[in-house]
Amino acid sequence: MQKDNISFSKYGKNFQEVLAYLILEDRPFSEQIEEVLDVSFFELNYLKVFVSKIFEYRTKYKVHPTSKIFDSIIRTELDDETEATREQVRRYFARSIVRASSDSEYIKSTSLDFCKKQKLKEAILKSVNLLQNSSYDEIKGLIDNALNLGIDSDYGHDFHKDFEARYELRARNPVSTGWQKIDDLTKNGLGKGELGVVIAPTGAGKSMVLAHLGSQALLNGNNVVHYTLELSEEVTGLRYDSCISGVRLGDLHSMKGMVYDSIKEVDGRLIIKEYPTKSASVNTLKAHLEKLKKNNIKIGMIIVDYGDLLKPVGTYREKRNELESIYEGLRALAQENECPIWTASQTNRSGLNAEVITMESISEAFSKCFVADMIFSVSRTVEDKNTNQGRIFLAKNRNGPDGLVFPLYMDTSRVKIKILDSPIQSEEKRPVNKLVEVYQKSKRQFNTAKNEGKHNDTNSK
Questions:
Q1: How far is residue 8's CA from residue 356's CA, in Å, rounded to a whole number?
Q2: Which residues contact 310 (CB under 8 A, 6 or more apart)?
Q3: pLDDT tens digits, residue range 308-334?
């Protein structure tokens, strides 16, 4: 068999370049293909050098190199190569670290299949000579060994082999909530793969808060997919219009030109998809997201309004088990799409007139709390609604402190939500006179925010 004639050439240059970088970026895959890959399969010399250096490092140090380590290797350890090859390797590496490929699974499976077939062919050719000597056991050993090469050997994070990976900084890529006070406490918002839950009783403004969070993501240049299981797509879209433009919901139609001028400058893309209540499951959302990704829409945030209205994937005897499975599914969906997901949950009756809503007021399934990375509640009494006031309670925060209550300004007529100054702590943590002082200060800020709203109304008219 002529090895020189065997290469990845039929798959093209892009296939080979992505494959080489996957060998660097994906340690389990690198370990898997190393057993069956001959670097001569690469058609281009700079890729042969690139992959050879990865395997040399793995052999010498018994760990897999990170991108930062490999950057140092190609800067200092290519002296034996020609100047042209050195330059090609470095340029290729610089291009690769900023290029993402949606075809990685295809490239991994195709290249593995190709390499394993070559190993099996070699074993069969060697077996021809052994057959003449009736060396059946040796033939069986050769074939079995060839078949076992390149099988998936990923047992998870290897403590020794993945040593370098533990010290590589992982980017959360958080998306801002639009509230500086909350961002400061949560390390700049909700990160990729994380689930945030807004808790509020019926009519308190859960959907308004979700529209606010989605609008902030859009203004920061993220693509947002908003699933609504209660409101129509058009009503949801109008709330985004109001939040971004500052125009009252009741004035949107008469001020359509001004609204359009506000939203046309927004960098992010918004997709609103409506499903009837309890008609869509997490799997339904997953299928829709796959369609968007096939159309090259990169998803920056997902909003589900709201999780309690999704249909469970399986059949459960109790509602709390249904809800638990839904929220676990949403958390998994965030991880699979590497973006944050915000949803909402309704409180039980105890939360209707509560000054501060805690996690104990979550309807049906307290286990939602275990799954979520961030939870905050919105509480608004009847008096609060009449005066555009309320409170936000940061109930859970994996990335910082929690248990803090913030005074809130919430004007639902224009989807305007602001958090005011310092948190109000419980009486056990702060003296009563301090609470009064903070309350009075927040009152002054509230009045300021209210006056700003009136001033904006006057200008818009």
A1: 63
A2: 229, 278, 280, 281, 282, 285, 304, 326, 329, 330
A3: 899 998 787 887 788 888 999 999 999
Q: What token pair was written down for 367? A: 């286990």
Residue among 346, 454, 338, 449 at smallest CA distance from 390: 449
Q: CA 394, CA 77: separation in Å to the nearest integer?
A: 52
**Beta strand spans in 96-223 (E):** 195-200
Distances (CA, A) of 336 to 262, 332, 425, 428: 33, 6, 37, 42
Task: Measure the CA–CA gap between 231 and 274, rounded to whole angstroms.
Answer: 8
Where does the pLDDT of residue 36 fall: very low under 50, low under 70, confident under 90, or very high at 90 and above? confident
Q: For CA atoms 252, 258, 260, 265, give the dihedral sign.
A: negative
Q: Which of 72, 68, 43, 70 lies closest to 54, judged by CA?
A: 70
CA distance 194 to 174: 9
Quick check: 272 and 235 in contact, CB under 8 A? Answer: no
Provide the 3-class DSSP secondary structure of residue 411. strand
Residue 275 and residue 284 in contact, taking contact as beta carbons nearer than 8 Å: yes
Q: What is the mean pLDDT of residues 335-357?
A: 79
Of 149, 153, 111, nearest in space to 17 by CA: 111
- Provide the greatest CA pair distance for the chain: 99
Q: Tens of pLDDT along 148-204?
A: 665 655 556 677 767 766 665 566 789 999 999 999 999 999 999 999 999 888 888
DSSP state at residue 397 = E
- pLDDT for 37-76, tens place per residue? 899 999 999 999 999 999 999 899 888 888 888 889 988 9
Amino acid at 414: R
